[in-house]
Fold this protein.
Amino acid sequence: MIELDHISKRYQLVNGRQKIVLDDISHTFHEGTSVGILGLNGAGKSTLMRIICGTEPPTEGRVRRTSRVSWPIGFSGGLHKSLTGRENMRFTCRIYGADIKKVTDFVEDFSELGIYMDMPIRTYSSGMRARLAFGLSMAIGFDFYLIDEGYAVGDASFRSKSEKVFQERKANATCLVITHSTSLVQKTCDKAAVLENGKLLFFETVNEALAYYKEMWSARK
């Protein structure tokens, strides 16, 4: 379970005013029901995802987690640039209590990084970092997977392999998809909401949420 308890997020602007990004959001995400959260550019999707996974605190409210929650799939910001890929992998395993050998065997085979596993992360391209982060999240396993548009990386062959292993993990996990991609929500989610003006609006069906979001998109053009 992931519970958002009266979550608000405000940023201080240079002119002394505040920008409200998230405004008193309360909702409980339960295991077994994959949820998509749609939002236009600038709606606060990335902020909400960072708060849910714990990399950024809310201004007010709190997040309760009783399940194992992933970092955003493909997100490599948590990797230490001075450490090698292998060292980052071992550090992550210790944090999550994962079997280092099993994780290492999986990630080495899956990521196709070869000798770069023993080179500092700062020498990696953005795609290589994303492949390592994606492989790690698939190797460790989570109850909730956080997903955005950037989770598919690499060439067509690697994306196909990524999709296959993700579908295997998804069979025993729940997805929280925060995106502006209607096709990703339609393909992955059981329920959907729209993030608008700092509020999270939930709908009875995915199709109703998609219709509302498409109207928002058309009105902005």
About this structure: Helices lie at 45-53, 85-96, 100-111, 126-140, 156-170, 182-188, 206-220. The chain has a mean pLDDT of 89.
